[in-house]
Amino acid sequence: MNILNSSSLDMIVFLIQDFVLIFIIYFCVVKLLKSKNGYLPAFFTFSMISYLLSGLYWVAFSLLKPEIDRMPFAVDEIADSAAILLLSTGLVADKKVDRTARAGELIFTVMFSLSNVALWICWSGEWLQDIIFGIPYSYFLWLIIRGIADTKPLTSKTVTTLRIISVTIVSLSFLIIILPGSISSVLDVICYILMFGMLIWLLIKSIQSKNLYVSALYFFTTIFVSYGCASVLYDLSILFNISALIIMYLSLRKEVLK
Q1: How confident is residue 6, by pLDDT bands cut at 50, 70 and 90?
Q2: From CA 10, how far away is CA 27, in angstroms rounded?
Q3: Which of 154, 239, 248, 255 has its CA 20 to 30 A from that of 8?
Q4: Nearest-10 crossing angle of helices 212-226, 181-209
Q5: Nearest to 258 by CA among 218, 202, 210, 207
Q6: Closest Cα partner for 133 from 116, 154, 146, 148?
């Protein structure tokens, strides 16, 4: 007999995330907002507050409506988008990075984002919601790509490899929807191996580099992976997301106090 069902695990994981966010917000207010480079930590702090509100809403909804598996178009999605837009505004406030658009980066960002929105629509059937909330993530991804290209914490070969793996995961996800069950089950396993392998690599790399943009890429990837997971693997992806929040704060602290 399972001691904890999937819903209970979800609740525990999101409560852990909420507690971590409270501590991050506290340390941001105490240690970073008084620095001379105030814009970046300010937007980051407001972003974490929005992310916290999203988590609290999810917990409240789960307690009040435990019989409903999927939340409707609601406050948590708006708070998530607000968090991403505030993070994006914080990255724009980093004047050390050249924001000049590059054709290759823009094409990859747009194509990758549209592919993911198409996947979300296939999974949920919610056209308007998925299109609207895909826009902030697309903008955030482009800022991360531009920041990594300009600060150069990763080699061009590594960046190319990450792009190939990401495109492979999205392609496999479409094939899983189309192909028969026996084949899709095998592709599903391959997809999970690639997703969590990439998460582990980015976790290690973001700790080693302490680069804000690598940490932001790791955070973005945890969201990308969580949307493609269910049950225990979804909870595992949220644990990776929690670690990404901590590493982003530490990378930001290094950047601000430098």
Answers
A1: low
A2: 26
A3: 248
A4: 160
A5: 210
A6: 116
Residue type, 217: L
Residue 95 amino acid letter: K
CA distances from 44 to 66, 118, 122, 226, 258 (A): 32, 29, 32, 22, 17
Look up residue 193 and give its two tokens: 């191996």
CB 240 within 8 A of CB 225: yes
pLDDT-based confidence at residue 4 (cuts at 50, 70, 90): very low
Whether the CB-CB separation of 99 and 60 falls below 8 Å is answered with: no
Evaluate if pTM is beyond 0.85: yes
The 10s digit of each residue's pLDDT in 95-122 is: 778 788 788 899 999 999 999 999 988 8
Amino acid of residue 48 = M
Tokens of 84: 């991403």
Residue at 207: amino acid letter:
I
